[in-house]
TrEMBL record:
Keyword Iron recorded: no
Gene: ilvE
Listed InterPro entries: Aminotrans_IV, Aminotrans_IV_CS, Aminotransferase-like, B_amino_transI, BCAT-like_C, BCAT-like_N, Class-IV_PLP-Dep_Aminotrnsfr
Cofactors (names): pyridoxal 5'-phosphate
Protein name: Branched-chain-amino-acid aminotransferase
Similarity remark: Belongs to the class-IV pyridoxal-phosphate-dependent aminotransferase family.
GO molecular function annotation: transaminase activity
Catalyzed reaction equations: L-leucine + 2-oxoglutarate = 4-methyl-2-oxopentanoate + L-glutamate; L-valine + 2-oxoglutarate = 3-methyl-2-oxobutanoate + L-glutamate; L-isoleucine + 2-oxoglutarate = (S)-3-methyl-2-oxopentanoate + L-glutamate
Pathway it works in: Amino-acid biosynthesis; L-leucine biosynthesis; L-leucine from 3-methyl-2-oxobutanoate: step 4/4; Amino-acid biosynthesis; L-valine biosynthesis; L-valine from pyruvate: step 4/4; Amino-acid biosynthesis; L-isoleucine biosynthesis; L-isoleucine from 2-oxobutanoate: step 4/4
Amino acid sequence: MSGIPFDQREGWIWFDGEFVEWSQARLHVLSHGLHYASTVYEGERVYNGKVFKLREHTERLYRSAQLMDFAIPFEPAELEAASHQLLQRNQVVEGYLRPVAWRGSEMISTSARFNRVHVAIACWQWPSYFDPAARMAGIRLKTATWRRPPPSSSPFEAKASGHYQIATLSKHDAENNGYHDALMLDWRGHVAEATSANVFFAKGRTLYTPVPDCFLDGITRQTVIELARALDYQVIETTILPTQLGDFDECFLTGTAAEITPVQSIDEQHYRPGTACRELIAAYTSTVNA
Ligand code: PMP
């Protein structure tokens, strides 16, 4: 464990329309969101005081709530204004923003149709190191035993807390075995994504990435596809089987937190982070800082 626990930091948190001191941002233990995972959230990155792709993240937060059958009781513009004010109050210039919405305590049962929906936003410093040399070493992934469920079992486009229990189990299993993260397969056994990032493979100037038909089509994923096409990479969204993992030269993850993270290996399969990782990291760095 490292760092100050997240409930013991200093600064301000926006909570149901007001700025409250960090230590006072509390919810009751009998909250529906805690017991039944009726919670949605966003992870946003702040570069030079600006939230990268704020509109896209805000839209996804509202869509996630709608998919989980609840409505956020604020206008999108109110949350965006609150985020900007919060960044200023907490003097965060390079950092991370975490909006979260959850059902409250009026009912503690499967049904929660009349529960009030609460919203909070927190932010903290998170400098973007982007030391390309260190990053290029790459991380090691272990294929997870837990799989992404079929789209018929949950609204997979929602960034909803319930979906993360599989990710946490898989990430723990990877870390307990000396790996950095897990590669998750979907219910069919196709390559899906990492626990909180999308995955890409490169062979020469062609990129391959799984079709996001049962996992988040990440905002970073979409950005990287655009950047890659502008750099004359061919980008193919397709089925990737575990037996094909040896067909590629490079592999990398994309996500708001992961940015572009080269992958050194998946189980026994090794990759050599090279031109594709380097060019895309450079393009992504200049885009987020533009
Ligand atoms: N998949 C999962 C499961 C995630 O949690 C994330 C991070 N939000 C991503 C993919 C990447 O999404 P984004 O690029 O929008 O951060």
